[in-house]
Amino acid sequence: MKTEPFQWIEGGGATSAAGWMACGVAAGLKAGRNDMAMLLSDRPAACAALFTSNKVPAAPVQYDRPLAAKGRCRGVVVNVGCANACTGRAGYADTVATGRAAAAAAGVPVEQMLVCSTGTIGRRLPMDRVLAGARAAAAALRPDGGAEAAAAIMTTDTVPKQAALRVKIGRVEYTIGGMCKGSGMICPNLATTLIFLTTDARVAPAALRAALKAAVAKSFNRVTVDGDQSTNDTCVLFANGAAGGPALSPSAPGWKKFVSALSAVALSLAKQIVMDGEGATKFVTCAVEGAASAADAYAAARTIANSPLFKAACFGGDPNWGRVICAVGNSGAKCAELKTRIFFDDVCVFDRGRLATDAENARLADVMKQRAFEVRVDLGMGRFSDAVYTSDLSHGYVSINADYTT
Amino acid sequence: MKTEPFQWIEGGGATSAAGWMACGVAAGLKAGRNDMAMLLSDRPAACAALFTSNKVPAAPVQYDRPLAAKGRCRGVVVNVGCANACTGRAGYADTVATGRAAAAAAGVPVEQMLVCSTGTIGRRLPMDRVLAGARAAAAALRPDGGAEAAAAIMTTDTVPKQAALRVKIGRVEYTIGGMCKGSGMICPNLATTLIFLTTDARVAPAALRAALKAAVAKSFNRVTVDGDQSTNDTCVLFANGAAGGPALSPSAPGWKKFVSALSAVALSLAKQIVMDGEGATKFVTCAVEGAASAADAYAAARTIANSPLFKAACFGGDPNWGRVICAVGNSGAKCAELKTRIFFDDVCVFDRGRLATDAENARLADVMKQRAFEVRVDLGMGRFSDAVYTSDLSHGYVSINADYTT
User: Fold this and answer.
1) A166: in domain
2) Do residues A89 and B352 touch, judged by C-beta distance below 8 A?
3) Same domain, residue pair B248 and B307
4) Which residue among A299, B104, B131, B277 has the highest number of C-beta atoms inside a 10 angstrom radius?
């Protein structure tokens, strides 16, 4: 193991970086819990954002996209319980009103307050509660409110998801942190669910966008629970420069280190999403190596990770490695039976035509009993590799989604 | 309803057409049941076949492909319990030996006997039992053995799947029938699982291939249970001319009627597969109309039909139509919220921005309680339509696949 050039902050999150405040409040959208959150910088900040590629984006996605494109946002207000998706022009007006109320209460320009919603599609927001909640949230902001905010944005999540670390670049120590929510409708494509990353580094919007894209590529774009991408997926990275020091940029020293630290936070959050996948009992790393191209490596890893048959076998701990090679054969990646090797952790179950022995199959069953394991496929075709992280398909997933709205 | 120009044969199947024999025998591959089947024409026959596009095809697929390409095959021998996939050169030799034994016992040229296997991937066939089973099957062939063969090829299927009909073309009455197996690993792409279609019409191999492709396009290529395509998928159509009459061909009169009758048999079998989908409790038709292109219509229908979130909602009868529009937005098809309409049977739940009323949502819940219903999306973008058939995602699916091999 190489030593990571940064220090993780235990219990850290979206308010670990200097100048950031957050909170969670109960607006009455979900009974008996906090259901709205706000995240705000105490000074001007740059921002970069990625949104769902779903062609029926929710109202807040339509609203945020042009605001985030300007590169200067101070914060975000979030509600759960209702996605405000497929609600037409009236739903869009609800988002505008929410943003207006939140910005006014927080004392920031209206175009610098983003709005995010998550929950059921095709229902209108209860606006009296949402507007009161936005005002209450602005009044409740505090520098140690990150954990409370992370808990408030949960939907079917069973645990809040946060991460933060410190990284020294030159003589300045920066903090990067974040929170996210999501456990179903998780698909490796663009940003997934709601993700908010903050830092006290000073970074111009264009550079921030490059850093975010790089960090998301191998984190949120590499996790899958069920292959569905929602109408509301949003990932925002804010940088407020509160740590001081020179502006970071791709041409300045330390940029790679910054992106690498940001990527580590993103990957930690992405893995937390998979660990908390709806009904998940297992965390499975689907790694592919020896692929003929980067696209092949990704396609093969993703197809394994999305195969309901393989995921159900993981749930049952069924040592059915045939479903892995079947998925690889289905992925479109260049492959051949007599060149393929399959490993579960350190157990080789298929070696270019040679089948696992009974002893190896018994060891495979032991590997699959673990809470987390890796399946690794060497295609023997080239030098490209990739990995996608997935959960198992359990009775819990079916139960959660069989009566989500009722 | 327009009257169909053919008569269904109750209880009919692969031996309904003249000159066809079949049987099922117990070879000891699965305890307490028949596990091998044979289907044979009593005279020379033309054949056409479609195979899985999985890049790790099983040994029998590798073996059958060149034989079927010659266009002249008399029959097929089938085993369950072991897919003989990923078994390398030794597994291929097992298939060769099986075909040789079956052909010799049935008294037909070795290159006219196809071999199919289905079951667990990555295990060798118990060859002593398979060879004895092939010989026993040849001795047990009988003209009314279709139902017995359909039962013998079942794996996780809970019911055998057969269909047959009569169609009059000119002065000759032809019979077309078939059987298939499959309930998991069902994906709309090329032929799916094992499907054997027979007719007593006289059709040359090239024409037969055209007819098969047309029939499969809107039947087996339009059903999905879990989006996985297996290593062994095979669909064969045999024509032995036993009914007499002139050769049917695309340029001869009655060809469209023949293809339409063949398509009806294929669609009946395909729907039986979905009805018997692993753990399925619902049959859901996912229809798309008003698409800007045929590709868009198919992509949207397929994405709805493959969405685990929508399928779980169908299981629970959760009136969560938001998952339908979310899937459509994800499909890549051209669409817009304010042009889209969504129906469940005759209930409109979303009309170009207008949300369902409480009364409509209540009626939606009633629709989803049925054993079978249709979700229909009008994209309002053009004139193309398509439909994909799917089952729900239930606890039964998870249970079946969590311990398939153990």
Assistant:
1) yes
2) no
3) no
4) B277
pLDDT above 60 for B181: yes
Within 8 A of A322 by CB-CB distance, chain B residues are 83, 85-86, 120-122, 231
**Residue B312: which of A229, A329, A398 has the nearest Cβ?**
A398
> How many domains, in total, are found in chain B?
2
pLDDT at B201 over 90: yes
Which of A61, A84, A86, A318 to probe by mutation at the B interface, max B CB count within 10 Å?
A: A86
Measure CB to CB from residue B398 to each of A86, A184, A394 and give the nearest one: A394
What is the ipTM score, two decimals?
Answer: 0.72
Task: Tell me the residue length of chain B.
Answer: 406
The answer to the question of residue B53 being in a domain is yes
| Distance (Å) from the alpha carbon of B374 to chain A's nearest alpha carbon | 18
Residues A133 and A27 reside in one and the same domain: yes
Residues A31 and A64 in one domain: yes
Least confidently predicted of A268-277, A286-295, A376-385, B157-166? A268-277
Last residue of a domain, one of B210, B240, B275: B275
* Residue carrying the six token digits 């020293």: A253
For residue B191, pLDDT beyond 50: no
Residue at A1 is within a domain? no
Residue B1 resides in a domain: no
Burial of B321 (0-12, 13-18, 19+ CB in 10 A): buried
pLDDT at A252 over 70: yes
B202 in the same domain as B309? no
Residues A240 and A327 placed together within one structural domain of the fold = no
Q: What is the pLDDT of residues B249-262, one digit of tens each?
A: 999 989 999 999 99
Domain boundary among A275, A298, A314: A275
Residue A267's Cβ-side half-sphere holds a number of Cα atoms within 13 Å equal to: 15
pLDDT for the residue numbered A184: 59
Residue A158 and residue A96 share a domain: yes
Asked if B323 lies within 8 A of A88 by C-beta distance, the reply is no
Q: How far apart are CA B20 and CA A348, in angstroms?
A: 46
Both B35 and B86 in one domain: the answer is yes
What is the pLDDT at residue B3?
A: 63
Contacts of A309 in chain B (CB under 8 A): 184-185, 226, 228, 401
Q: Say whether residue B394 is in contact with chain A using an 8 A CB cutoff.
A: yes
CA separation, residue A173 to residues A17, A197, A201, A210 (Å): 10, 17, 9, 21
Residue A275 pLDDT > 70, yes or no? Answer: yes
Confidence label for B229 from pLDDT (cuts 50, 70 and 90): low
Sequence-distant (6+) residues with CB within 8 A of A172 are: A243, A244, A245, A246
Same domain, A159 and A268: yes
The verdict on B2 touching A (C-beta cutoff 8 Å) is: no
**B1 touching chain A per CB within 8 A:** no
- Surface of B (173-202) touching A: CB under 8 A: 184-185, 187
pLDDT (tens digit, 9 = 90+) per residue, A65-118?
Answer: 999 999 999 999 999 999 998 888 999 999 999 999 999 999 999 999 999 999
Query: Which residue range forms the structural domain that includes residue A293?
Result: 283-402
Contact between A326 and B353 using a beta-carbon 8 Å cutoff = no
- DSSP state letters, B90-119: HHHHHHHHHHHHHHHHHTS-GGGEEEEEBS
What is the torsion angle, in degrees rounded to the nearest 10, for the CA atoms of residue A210, residue A216, residue A222 and residue A227? -110
DSSP bridge partners of A235: A50, A195
